[in-house]
Design brief:
The complex is a heterodimer of chains A (240) and B (274). By secondary structure, chain A is α/β, with parallel strands linked by helices. Chain A has 7 helices and 9 strands; from the N terminus they run βββαββαααβαβαββα. Chain A is globular, with a radius of gyration of 18 Å. Chain B is an all-alpha fold and 274 residues long. Chain B has 11 helices and no strands. Classes of the chains: A alpha/beta (240), B mainly alpha (274).
Amino acid sequence: MAAHPAGLEPVVAVRGLTRSFGDRPVLDDLDLDIAPGEFVALLGRSGSGKSTLLRVLAGLDTGVTGAYDVRGSVAVAFQEPRLLPWKRVAANVALGLDRPVSAAVEALGEVGLEHRVDAWPLTLSGGEAQRASLARALVREPDLLLLDEPFSALDALTRITMHGLVSDLWRRHRPAVLLVTHDVDEALLLADRVCVLTDGRIGHAVEVSADRPRHRDEPELTALRRDLLTELGVEAEVPA
Amino acid sequence: MSSSAVELGSRAATSRAGRPRRRRLTAWQRLISPIVLVIAWQAASMTGVLPDRLLAAPTTIFSTAIDLVEDGTLVTATLVSLQRVAIGFAIGAAAALVLAFVAGLSRLGENAVDPPLQMLRTLPHFGLIPLFILWFGIGETPKIALVTLGVVFPLYLNTFAGIRGVDPKLIEAARTLRLSRAALVRHVLIPGALPQALVGLRQSLGIAWLALIVAETVNADAGLGYMITDAREFLRTDIIVVGLAVYSLLGLLTDAIVRLTERRALAWRRTLLD
């Protein structure tokens, strides 16, 4: 277990969490702490249980044993934006919000969608829809923001823009973040700590201390990338 | 790459310019055969090939329609029929929606409501007329009951399927937004079920008119069906045809109303097709 900023009550405290589907344990006696304001990325191969852990923390999966504690409010952005197609963008962001709609419009401004507040979700591009989904999560000012591979369906260029945006928003609002991803570079660019989920538990974790904004070619990141890829069972990149 | 894009663009422009004229032309062409048929019908009537007691001439039917409107018979009959459909439809639609939500929102509700409705659905509901006459006599009640029964099933089935068909991913997202149960129904389930429910509504209205016609033809002392059966006694095929035309106009009208509602309520979806 990697260290986290001392003296702060963690936002997420997971102890001995187990989740099985049939006979197969997907999460097996897993421990994880996330400190307030900490950005944690969770890596793992497909089917490793990354999303299952996120769904447990989101309160969407209660069939678990073990202890987990989430302090404060939680917001989620999923892999697909999951906007209600029959509500305009602003109404989607404001849904279930106990603050006025102007807060939703403001949040849409923060993600660069001020010109799309009255649009129907089906008319948005993939990147725009994912921005709206981020705005919907952030407007709730969560203590914990759960991101379930939110950029994996976007094209490479849009993804780069979104990385910058998420980094920006995180610095401004400082929620604790758990980013589930299978993209090692994405994890290294964004997170304070990168955890690798293997055989149902956090098998490996590395701290990333490089200053932000980071560039993927920094020596620290290059070394960590090799380390993480090995941990994931992938051979280091073949030289050209 | 760019040159082919230009080519595509210019081709699109010419076809756009050419299309309206061609469409107007085909619209005209499609009118020709009905007009020829009506002329042939009129000719057959005037030459005596088609006797009046089998089918009145178009001109006779037209002037009869005007007479019936002027002496008030048609208006009164239409209002009586319209009232029956309206009452029967209102009761049936309310029952269908309540049942669909009871069944749609909980497993318990589904187990309680769905099996008996699925069983009743297989009854040929016009076959119930003898029972209805025994139960309700020959007044307004059996006619309204027949309309109600016809309306309930398609609207129930479609609304129920619509509720259950709402994307579970959206329901999950709503749960992470901490929506209350009532808010979930209002913001997610009702709008999500609406497209399918409106399909059910159109089917229901079609069956409502059909049920009315059957009920009125079997037994009535007022309304369009009565006007038609009464005309049969006197071999007045012109009045029969006028009655049938009014039935189909009313059916078209209610269908158009639902279509209009559809277009306004499902505006979010229309953008997909544009």
